[in-house]
Design a protein that fits this description.
Helices cover 71% and strands 0% of the residues. The protein is mainly alpha-helical. The chain is globular, with a radius of gyration of 18 Å.
């Protein structure tokens, strides 16, 4: 089944927006000391976050990339990221970091499988590992 990029983008944005709404509800429930409900919503939020990240990996534009622009619109100053010299993007230390992130993601996934956890921290580490690898080694298929 093919899904248009515009639709994928909208799904990713919806996931991010719903995550924010869930955080607001969780904060209100924490104030009311409804810890059981907060835990239920935290599990739902984690699944929603994973879904959003999967949609981005499937080709949607990452709505997190737009967040600094949104923050600027409400009057908060956002600094431009300093440029990193090209030779440092794939330095030996950067490569070591990317490999360590991949190793951590794999180890966490194995540990979660061992424990019967299917929606845990490994998904987040996978996103970080992919990001580190793309920064250091470039996107797969581009070389």
């Amino acid at each position: 089944m093919l899904v248009a990029n515009e639709e994928l983008d909208a799904w990713a944005e919806d996931c991010l927006r719903l995550n924010g709404l869930l955080l607001g509800v969780m904060d209100k429930l924490r104030i009311q000391r409804e810890s059981e409900r907060v835990e239920e919503l935290a599990n739902i939020r984690q699944k929603l976050w994973k879904l959003g990240r999967q949609v981005v990996r499937s080709g949607a534009a990452d709505p997190l990339d737009a967040l600094p622009k949104q923050v600027e619109r409400v009057g908060v100053e956002v600094k431009e990221a300093e440029s990193i010299p090209l030779h440092l993007l794939s330095s030996p230390k950067a490569q070591e970091f990317a490999r360590a992130m991949r190793s951590a993601a794999l180890a966490c996934a194995e540990m979660e499988r061992e424990r019967g956890i299917y929606d845990g921290f490994a998904e987040i580490l996978e996103d970080y590992a992919v990001g580190a690898e793309e920064e250091v080694f470039g996107k797969p298929g581009r070389g």
